[in-house]
Amino acid sequence: MKVRESGMPEQSVWDSYFEPQEILQTLGLTAACQNLIEFGCGYGTFTVAAAELIGGQVIALDIDPQMLEVSAARARDQGLNNIEFKCRDFVNDGSGLPSGRMDYAMLFNILHHEQPVTLLREVYRNLSAGGCIGIIHWNHDPETPRGPPMSMRPKPEQCMMWAEQAGFIPDSGVIKLPPYHYGMVLRRPGR
Ligand SMILES: C[S@@+](CC[C@H](N)C(=O)[O-])C[C@H]1O[C@@H](n2cnc3c(N)ncnc32)[C@H](O)[C@@H]1O
Question: How far away, in angstroms, is 72 Cα from ligand 1 center?
């Protein structure tokens, strides 16, 4: 089941909203990361940037084969061979990966999902002890040029609370990611 309001504008428009490398570095991603998973890779805006930054492998999930094709072509164009793209409905079927293997998970522009804590519990399961989740979302501001309707757009403190309900502990406060986003990093405890 596709997450509500998870359609995308044209790629060039979507990409114009972000500085992916800068955002990922701000959210603590470094070359020390060996195994990263992204839930809903879209056009690969952050997938490719993450694959360039980390020392290991990226697993990118999306329900939409067209999105996966665009992302894979983008990775090929950049000469990247450390991304595995998987067509997967993570809402109904989870990631399908064994538990506790990932160092970092990206949940970007997707937490307006109907059941955010269920999704966050699946992310938690995927992470190793000490592994981190980076969350970003549209500012809770009707003036942003896109983003889910305000009635379903989570506030940063809601994202933080849902992640804590799923078992995460905060590794950062709310981080401003101008012009239109905020982010946060939380950790699976245990190391
Ligand atoms: C708003 S886009 C965000 C893309 C990317 N995370 C970014 O920030 O650039 C959401 C993406 O999640 C995908 N998606 C929605 N529901 C999904 C599901 N149930 N399983 C896997 N992917 C899903 C959509 O196809 C879309 O590509």
Answer: 15
Confidence of residue 6 (pLDDT cuts 50, 70, 90): confident
Q: Which CATH number covers residue 153?
A: 3.40.50.150
Return the exposure string of 43-74: e unless at least 16 CB atoms fall within 10 Å of the residue's CB, then b.
Answer: bbbbbbbbbbbbeebbbbbbbbeebbebbbeb
Say if 14 falls within a structural domain.
no
Q: How many CB atoms lie within 10 A of CB 7?
A: 10
If one residue of 2, 14, 38, 106 were mutated to test the ligand 1 pocket, choosing by the most ligand atoms within 8 A of its CB, it would be: 2
Global pTM value: 0.97
* End-to-end Cα, the chain, rounded Å: 34
Over the stretch 34-58, which tens digit does the pLDDT of each residue have? 999 999 999 999 999 999 999 999 9
| Number of compact structural domains in the chain | 1
Report residue 93 as tokens: 């079927």
Q: For ligand 1, is residue 89 a contact (CB within 6 Å)?
A: yes
